[in-house]
Amino acid sequence: MLYRENGQFKTTYRQDQQMLPILQDRIFMALLLLFVFGAGPFIFSDYLFLSILIPFLILALAAIGLNLLVGYCGQISLGHGAFMSVGAYAAYNLALRMPQLNFLVVLILAGLIAALVGLLFGIPSLRIRGLYLAVATLAAQFFMDWTFARVKWFTNYAPSGSVSTATIDIFGWTVDTPVRKYLFLLAVVTVFALVAKNLVRGHMGRAWMAMRDMDVAAEVIGIRPVYAKLTAFGVSSFYVGVAGALWGFVYLGSWEPLAFDINLSLNLLFMIIIGGMGSILGSFFGAFFIVALPILLNQAPEWLGIHMSTAMVSNLEAMIFGSLIIFFLIVEPQGLARLWAIGKEKLRLWPFPH
Amino acid sequence: MGAGANGGKSIGGVVLGLEGISLAFGGVRALQNVSFDVREHEIRAIIGPNGAGKSSMLNVINGVYHPQEGTVTFNGVKRRDVNTHEAAAQGIARTFQNIALFKGMSVLDNIMTGRNLRMKSGLLAQAIRIGPAEREELQHREAVEQIIDFLEIQAYRRTPVGRLPYGLQKRVDLARALAMEPKLLLLDEPMAGMNVEEKQDMCRFILDVNDQFGTTIVLIEHDMGVVMDISDRVIVLDYGKKIGDGTPDEVRGNQAVIDAYLGVSH
Ligand SMILES: Nc1ncnc2c1ncn2[C@@H]1O[C@H](COP(=O)(O)OP(=O)(O)O)[C@@H](O)[C@H]1O
Ligand SMILES: [Mg+2]
Q1: How far apart are CA A256 and CA A197, in angstroms?
Q2: Both B199 and B85 in a single domain?
Q3: Burial class (CB in 10 A: 0-12, 13-18, 19+), A325
Q4: In a shared domain, residues B166 and B196
Q5: How close is the nearest chain A Cα to the Cα of B162, in Å?
Q6: Those residues with Cβ within 8 angstroms of residue B27's Cβ, 6 or more apart along the chain or in another chain
Q7: Atom of ligand 1 nearest to the CA of B97
Q8: For residue A99, with 0-12 CB atoms within 10 Å meaning exposed, 13-18 middle and 19 or more buried, which class applies?
Q9: The pLDDT of residue A308
Q10: What is the per-residue pLDDT for B264?
Q11: Which residue's alpha carbon is at the smallest distance from atom 9 of ligand 1?
């Protein structure tokens, strides 16, 4: 009986257009934010920060970015790992060559550079779609991999090709301990998630979705395909570029060439398939799932007292991912986010079955 | 009685003129040297058997197809090849024979896309939303709500369009086109597959749009009763050729038309 929208009458369109029109959802979100910002830093362990929460937050950001393109605009990309690497190397070079720049500025610039590269590789989408577009974006992946491995300037002529970053300093606040990294990422991801939510609720988001659902009809009502597709590629790559910079600076600290290879691109796709295409919330679910499942699989046998070789565990992981992806593609293309929505619907009706 | 149904209304000058339009797909000659005009504020019907080229005609008007020959004059400006979205920007809206709604979006969002051409707030404004973007959004929401009221679909705002029954989907398709506030509205078989009651509703909506908003309408319809009732003038196509053009009464009396169409289907 707790989750109800009865009696919550909207008297203005403004109320009706809120991000979370149902009061209980707003309360839940407020409590969640209060908990993760207020309580989390005190009660979570360093292990939780470093091996789950930090990668989760960054990958959630990247998944949102990819979801804007694939889930909202219906354009496939296998090159998003590459756009992450563009963000990471752009941030590395900006920080290296202009040390006076504030890291937040570096982050935004890195995102903008990734957006530019993403736009460039998005141009084929104006002509081709589906499998052909997938192959074209795959080319972006290999091209960027090659560039950062071969063009030594990007890695500052480090003999091994691996680069390492300095500690992040934001107006005198150093982002060095796990808890600070967590808080910094949490703030960034919250803002970006909010912005993404705003974009998909506005006319640009509707243009993307119209393009995805029925491109001929979209054009007939005046949506320009060039504009819709390229903004989607640009914004999406911006998000992913920022995520790449954070992945390099906050999570990895130092990385080798091929840290952002095709596997990362595929993982990002898995996240949005499992989490939910066309859902910001789903991007979080998917990222959490991808980060947490391997850890769970590693720990579970121990808890259960079963001995399992690491090879076995990684095989198991691949099998579970594979079956889940097939399951979601066939049964529930809207992923975990859809299951969540169904759960909420059930709760709304509870305790009455109908 | 065609003109009778719209008794007192005043038909204006020519808004759309088509001159010698020919369109072929490989060997298929969909349209052959077709000319006609549409006057302001009029309901102009296009009839003809399946495959006669009716939908192709609409596709030429709003730039989906580019004819090999002939010119289109809209609002006094002569043009041959425009992009679909340019035609939209000039004020041409349309609905589709096979519903072409945005399946993954709600009824409200579908109709809101009809306002996209008019929404100008930039990327950053939309990202922040609070302020200009939200004001713009609300202003257009109000326009859309009027259309929702007009078409009596208030109960379905939040419903994903895919879940609506067919008749209502047709209505949402019309709502989305109306949201563009078009000068010229092209309707491709808006009543196909509807039951009698739904057809009556749709007729009423079309007449009301024409009457209240002064929208010029080009309509493809198979139901001869409907066509004779609501249209001011009728064009008859057969195998891509125009075989009749005039008021419903004139067309009804035309022997070529009777042979090609009326006699066969009724
Ligand atoms: N995109 C297309 N490609 C090939 N042939 C087409 C295309 N569109 C229409 N046609 C052909 O043009 C002719 C007229 O079709 P259409 O305009 O849809 O007829 P109607 O709407 O009167 O039933 C048909 O023979 C059809 O097969
Ligand atoms: Mg047709």
Answers
A1: 34
A2: yes
A3: middle
A4: no
A5: 11
A6: none
A7: 21
A8: exposed
A9: 76
A10: 52
A11: B56
Q: Within this chain, do residues B251 and B229 fall inside the same structural domain, yes or no?
A: yes
Q: Give the position, in ligand 1's atom list, of the atom nearest the Cα of B189.
A: 21
Contact B197, B89 (CB under 8 A): no
What's B240's domain CATH number?
3.40.50.300
Which of A2-11, A190-199, B192-201 has the least mean pLDDT? Answer: A2-11
How many domains, chain B? 2
Q: For chain A, how big is the Rg over CA atoms in Å? A: 21
Write out pLDDT tens, residues B114-132: 999 999 999 999 999 999 9
Average predicted confidence (pLDDT) for chain A: 89
Is the minimum distance from the CB of B30 to ligand 1 under 6 angstroms? Answer: yes
Q: What CATH number belongs to A48-349? A: 1.10.3470
DSSP symbols for B210-266 = IIII--EEEEE---HHHHHHH-SEEEEEETTEEEEEE-HHHHHH-HHHIIIIIHHH-
Q: Mutating which of A220, A233, A239 best tests the B interface, going by the most B Cβ atoms within 10 A?
A: A220
| CB–CB contact A213 B134 (8 Å) | no
Ligand 1 contact, B23 CB (< 6 A): no
Whether B132 and B32 share a structural domain: no
Mark which of B179, B211, B230 sits at the end of a domain. B179
**What confidence tens digit (pLDDT) does each residue in A247-260 have?**
999 999 999 888 89
Share of chain A above pLDDT 90, in %: 58
Pick from A87, A49, A65: nearest CA to A255: A87
- Statement to judge: residues B169 and B221 lie in one domain: no
Of the residues B179, B209, B233, which one is the last residue of a structural domain?
B179
Assess whether B190 and B261 both reside in one domain: yes
Name the residue range of residue B158's domain.
Answer: 105-179
